[in-house]
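Archive entry. Fields below.
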Amino acid sequence: MDGMPSVPDRSNGPALSPETMKRAYKDMVLIRRFEEKAGQLYGMGLIGGFCHLYIGQEAVVVGIGLHMKQGDKSITSYRDHGQMLVAGMTARGVMAELTGRAGGYSRGKGGSMHMFSREKEFYGGHGIVGAQVSLGTGLAFANKYRGSDEVSIVYFGEGASAQGQVYESFNLAALHKLPCIYVIENNRYGMGTSIERATASKDLSRNGEPWGIPSRKVDGMDVFAVEQAAQEAMEHCRAGKGPFLLEMETYRYRGHSMSDPAKYRQRTEVEEMRRTRDPIENLKAEMLRAGITEDVLKDIETEVKATVADAVEFAQVSPEPDPSELWTDILVEA
Amino acid sequence: MASPILMPALSPTMTEGTIARWLRKVGERVQSGDVIAEIETDKATMEVEAVDDGILGQILVPEGTQNIAVNTPIAVLLDEGEDAASAGDFARSSAPANESPATSPVANASAVATAPPSIAVAEDRDWGETSEITVREALRDAMAAELRRDEDVFLIGEEVAQYQGAYKISQGLLDEFGEKRVIDTPITEHGFTGMAVGAALTGLKPIVEFMTMNFALQAVDHIINSAAKTLYMSGGQMGCPIVFRGPNGAAARVGAQHSQCFASWYAHIPGLKVVAPWSSADAKGLLRAAIRDPNPVIVLENEILYGQKFPCPVDEDFILPIGRAKIEREGKDVTLVAFSIMVGVALEAAEKLAEEGIDAEVINLRSIRPLDTETIVNSVKKTSRLVSVEEGWPVAGIGAEICMIATEHAFDWLDAPPARVCGLDVPLPYAANLEKLALPKPEWVVDAVRKQFRD
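PREDICTED_STRUCTURE:
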C-alpha cells in the first residue's frame, strides 16, 4: 500500500453520517481550491500585500465548524480565509476583499488579513500575532455577560503561543469561567522558526494547566479526530464549565506567506505530509470505504470549482472602492 | 481549454524575476500543487506550483532567462486530449497590464487631506443650577448615571470593585451595580484590555479603567490596532464603543515612569477620540458623552485634579459634547489654549497678565481629538496672539498642533509667532526641586506672552 494515504482506524470512534462527511468534504475542498486560486491571483498581481494560505490545515477549521451553531463566534489571526468560509461567509465576498474591491467584506479596506462579518459572527482577521486571543476571550466574556450558551472559538498558531497576552487571557477566561475554546493550530513553524526553536514547552496542549484549563492534543490532519475533540470542548463550554484548550497538530503546505520560500524545512518533509497525511485525501478514502461513490465526490468537486470560479470572476469585475471610501468608517457617527 | 501559465508575483514588491529551473518537462501531466519551476527574485529562490491540473504543453520561456516581467506567459497548460497546436500563440499576446484605478486617490491627496472631519457635535447649553463637587465625585457620578441608563455598560479594571478604586473614583459602584458590572481584574492590562475590546466589538460598552495611563502602555496595541482600526478595516461593520480612562500626566513626585502626558500619542490616531477634562463639569459631562459615544474614547484624567472642587450642573441629564472647547475667560489681547490641569495654570497666568494690563482669553480645549479648530481660530483672529500651554513634552506635542492650526488658518491675523509652553524635554525627576523646575507654571506662560508683545 506504499504511496496510499493512510486510513485511520475508526473501529472505536463514532462514524460521521454520510451527509456530515459530504459537508466536511465540500468545505475542505472549497478551502483548498479557494486558496489555490488566491495563490494564482496573487501571482497575477490581482492580490497584493500579505497573503497567508490555509492549504494543509483544512481539517482543523472544518472539523470544529461541524459543531458550531448559530451565534457561536470565531476569531483568528491573518491566516484567515478558511475560517471565513467555514463561518459561512461567501467565497465571492472574501475573494473580492483579497483583490481589494468594493464587493469585498470590508469594501476593499481590509484585505486578506482583515475581514469581518457581523452577520456570521466572524470577528477577524487580525494582523498582530496573539491579539486575537484576548479579543476572542472578550467575545466569550460577552456571551457570558448576555447569559447565552454561545461559544467563542479562538484560533492561534503555536507561534502566537509564545505571546504573553495568551496566558493573561487563559487566566482571565479560567477566572471568569468564560465559554472559550482556544484552538492552537500547531503547524510546526511560526514563519521560519520551528517549534523546537520557539518554545521550551514540550506539549502545548498542557499550556493551560496552571489555570486548570482542560485540553486535548488532536491529530489536526484528521477531520474525524478534530470533530470528536470539538464536540467535547463545545459541550464543556456550553455547560458553563469555562474554557477548553485544543492543540491541533497540523501542517501548512505553503510558505508562511506568498513571499516565503520556506527554506527552513526540507522539501521531502512537505512531500511526505502531503502524501501520507493529507486531510482531504484521508477523508476521501474514508468516504469511499463508507460506500459513497466517486461520482458523488466528483459532483462535490465540480460544484466547488464552480463556486470558486464564480468568486474569481466576481473579484475581478467588482469595481475598486470609490475614493470617497477613504473617509468613511473612521468613526461611527455619534 | 489551453491556458497560459503566467510569470507569478511571489512577493509584495516583485516586478520581475529569473526562471532558474523548469522541474517539469513538456508533455508531463501536472496536478494542482505540483512544483513546476523555480524562480529567482531579488530576495530568494521560490517554487512555482501548478494551480490547475493538465499537461505541460509548451515552455515559452527557457530556464536561465532573466528579467521576466510579472504576468508574462511562461508556459502553456493543456487539458487532457489537447495537443500543443491548440495552445495558440500565448507568447505573443502580451500580459494584461494591471489596470490603474480610474481615479487615483493619490492624485486627490491634497484635496482629501484637508477634508474636514464630519463630526456631529451637540451644542453646549446653559444647564442651570450647579453645586460644588470634586472631579472625583463627578467622574463617579458620570459612571453611575450611565451604568443605570444602559445595561450594556460595565466597568473593568484593577481595584475598581472591592477596593473602590485605586484613586476612589469607583466608590460605591460595586454596591449599586454588583460584580457582574463592576469587575476587578488581575494586574494584566494587555489581557483585560484586549478582552474588553473584544466584548465591545460585540456591542457591549466597557469602561476600562487604567490605574494610571502609564500602565495602558502595556495595552496600547489593543487601543490602537484593535479598538481604533477595526471599524475601518471591517468596512463599517464592527464599531468599538469603549472608554479607556485613568489619570494622565504628572502627579506628585512619583518619578519618570508614572508622570507623563499621553495626549499627543492618542491624538495622533484616526479612529480614536480623546478628551481631557479640567473641571468637575468637564469630567462629568465628557465622561458621560464618552460612554455613550459609539467609538473608542480616551479620557485623560489628572490625579491632582481629582480632589479639587468645581461647580457642576445638578441637572440629571447634564452632558457635554465631545469636540467643543470652552472659553473659560474672555479676553482681547492674547489667546491661551490649554487642557486638563494646565487650564488652571493658564487662568492664573491670565490674572497676572491682567495686572500688567494684558487681557488674556483662556480656552479650555476639553477635547483633544477632534480639536475645536473653530473656537481656536476665532479667538486668534480676535486677539492676534497665541500661546499654547501643556504639561507634556514639546516635540510633536499638542502645542505644535495648536500653533500650526493658528498658522494655517489665521496667519494674516497674527501679530507674533505662535508660542508654546510645555513641560521640559526630560523624563520627570523625583527630587522635589527638580520636578518643580520641569513642569509649566504660570510665570512661564506670562513670560511667553510678554515676549509676544516685546517685538
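CURATOR_NOTE: The longest helix of chain B spans residues 135-149.
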